[in-house]
Amino acid sequence: MLADYRGRVVVLFFGYTHCPDVCPTTLTQLAQARRLLGPDAGRVQVLFVTLDPERDTAQLLARYAPAFDPSFVGLTGTQPQIEAAAREFKVFFQKVAGPTSDSYTLDHSSGSFVFDPQGRIRLYLPDRAQPDQIAADLKRLLG
Description:
- The chain is of the alpha/beta class.
- It has one domain (2-142): Glutaredoxin.
- The chain has helices spanning 22-36, 58-68, 79-88, 131-142; strands at 9-15, 44-50, 73-75, 93-96, 105-108, 112-115, 121-125.
- The chain has a five-stranded mixed beta sheet with strand order 3-2-1-6-7. A two-stranded antiparallel sheet has the order 4-5.
- It is globular.
């Protein structure tokens, strides 16, 4: 997956579309940071990986991620694939029951992983990072 974006800075964020706060906030901050890059924005790719493949279908992700920025890509897989990817990046997530079986939430890690144009992981962006800080970090990686 990351090899498809070689030559670009890739920001990888794990979340889910029904997230009430952290996910939409983070994606909004990433979109704002990308806009701050001006012409360099085309060299940055944001990938949103769902932690909730039960509800987050490919069709839903195809609408959700680009709603923040048309270049954003939403990714899904099987539950075992998602769990393996989360383990690889040491992303915590856990289902929290809601009042009905389909109204659950997920507690999850909230930072983003940033890869340089050669595909090496270089940064971990905390969810509290501001767009101008994010843009400055991405600009440094773009060279």
